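FW: tagging you since you asked about this chain on Friday. Here's the raw sequence from the shared folder, copied in full. Didn't touch anything.
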Amino acid sequence: MRSIKSSARALAAKAGAVALAVPMLLGGAVPASAAIVAHAMTPAVGSNVRYEYIGSAEPQGAVAFGCQLRPRLGPPARAFCYGPDQIRAAYDFPPVSGGITGTGRTIVIIDAFQSPTIQKDLAAFDTIWGIPAPPSFNIVYPDGKTPFDVNDPNQVGWSSEISLDVEWSHAVAPGATIDLVLAKSNNDVDILSATRYAVDHNLGDVISQSFGEAEACMDPALVTQQHEVFAQATAKGITLFASSGDQGAAQPTCDGNSLILSASTPASDPQVTGVGGTHLLADAHSGAYGSESVWNNDFGAGGGGFSTLYGRPGYQTQVEDNNKHRGVPDVAYNGDVRGGVVAAWSVLFPDNVVAFFVFGGTSAGSPQWAGIVAIADQKGGHRLGAINKALYRIGEGNAYGKAFHDITAGNNSFGGVSGFAAVQGWDAASGLGTPDVANLIPLLLSAPGGGGGQN
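HL: got it, structure written out here
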């Protein structure tokens, strides 16, 4: 593997990134121009979250990489990274053998630019863990295909986001079709154009958005247009997810030079289900759930806070907090790089190499929650549509402890910005918590206001 690592270092240096053989930060995830920063989304996985290169691997079943066997303090053995088998076990997904895998449903992933290796990477990812290829994997460029520039760290960062989003939405809903809709750039107007295309053409049942920025950094006119597109989506029964950010209660300022207290858009839109981040401890071999806390360390912290654009929506009226504005996140998912997920991402490697990395960030949660809804849509025979009302009703009911892991440890203060502590029930660090999928799905399907009811 030494020669692969050497090639990776050279290619990474060429792209303006730190060496891939150690935890890595893509330096160009935040655009250099202040004018662009004020109107550009950044991928949650590239803005602050790092990756660790772990090499390549031959198919070995549930445990394929050494990082899955790295011990932690105290029994049982704790994994440093997770594969699909461990995540599915930790969050109690229905067994694939039962046939509820998202079949007949479509997950739409919105990202920017492109990844020239995504088909190869997805195929390798599936091979490692014996996951069948998706019934259909479509890549759509509504406004044209931007040529890939390996010398542009911004594009490289988005290509890593594409790998994480595509592979892990597929991992949890292997029977669903995937439509990857790529904006020509990460400028707000281009991201919105791609999202509008997906909604106007009714491409899928659920949309995942693993990107965001401080609310104040998006043009108010575009915020209004974005909200209108989201309303059109939910009217069609489409469920919307977005990552809540990876700097805790903070977001980068519009010039990218510091951090400010801010919720992230689009996660803060009331039509969207915002996804926060946790640190998951699960058994290294079986994936048996151990415990969770709010993700918060040197790699980043789970995003959350209160909107300055939207008042408290009706579904949050029972939340015990004095703030009268829209709170995020609504739910959470494993997000810490220490205990992150493995994904194939090869754009910085030679054509004959498929490289695997450990990824973290709230980017990992949005596509997996999208997969959960695809599974629920299949089981229920119709689209769930906007699910926030149903989620909070479950959170208020007696079944809350069965449907969610309530996160009560940790906080999302980060970078000198004071955040919010995890408490019992909903909080602005972990939302309602992380899912017990097998128990949550029937509750979502039966909860009043639980879906659009469209086929």
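FW: The chain has one domain: 2-446.
HL: agreed, and The mean pLDDT is 85.
FW: great, closing this out.
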